[in-house]
Amino acid sequence: MRKLSCFILLISSLLLISACNQNKVTKIDLAEVTRSIFYAPQYVALEKGFFEEEGLEVDLQTTWGGDTTMTALLSDSADIALVGSETSIYVYAQDSRDYAVNFAQLTQTDGTFLVAKEADEDFNWEDLRDSNFLGQRVGGMPQMVGEYVLKQHDINPHEDLDLVQNIDFANIPGAFASGDYEYVQLFEPTASIFEANGQGHIIASFGEESGQVPYTVFMAKESFLDEEEETVKAFTRAIYKAQQWVQETDSLEIAKVVEPYFEDTDVEMLANAIERYKQQGSYATSPLLEEAAWENLKSIMDEAGELPGDAPYEDLVNTDYAEQIIEE
């Protein structure tokens, strides 16, 4: 009888330990490069509890800019960063021993729109010649894609425009509103807000013009991927759930879910911005970053004169987690 009691006690202890392990929560510090409806699937993963389902507690911080976001990642202030994949190439070119590796793609086109001060229903890219154009940060994806698109339309941004690039990323909308600039690149929902307030008019999409590119990607240091494989896999699974949910869900319903992240923006306006991104295929439907898109990124960077050197897909992109999650 005593042996039976001991056996029952042992089994109970094992079950208790197992239950504790199953309920174990792993904390993740996540840094996003900016706050944008362009990242709707990320906010869906947070609000719908997809991270929690995977045993993750994600603390989201907005770090405003590629440089500060990458600094947060490399200094261990963040475990994972959502930022333009070009930043990983810049770090790799510095011969970093523990460089950033892209493991889950979130957006697959440029997310900016060409906004004009004046309405122009008959807009032609030639209209930009000799205009006062407020550009984005040198070496950042918005600016490089912008230059790439303009050159496709035989416009040299540094010769054919009065191009200004000395405004910090977070201050660009305010500078456009208060300055005498004629054109600017803006993300949503800022572009729609400007349009609703009569401060600007959306006249073209850089995402539609530039094709598929790994524009915003979740990345982590190589050491983190090696040491936290199960955590990264769980994170990727949560993102994939969100991507599928966004793909299958009405834009207004998505807007209602992510509204807490955009308290000053009307839900209908959010829905319109989400629909615009969905229609042009900006939201990646899976976390898999394919080599063809990576090569397009390198071509865009090279065209802008910002590709610092070789950026091997096999070194800077890890598709293991995405492939495993998709197969599940």
From TrEMBL:
Keyword Ion transport in annotation: no
GO cellular component: periplasmic space
Location(s), subcellular: Periplasm
Signal sequence range: 1-19
Keywords, comma-separated and alphabetical: Signal
Protein family: Belongs to the bacterial solute-binding protein SsuA/TauA family.
UniProt name for this protein: Putative binding protein YtlA
Organism: Oceanobacillus sojae
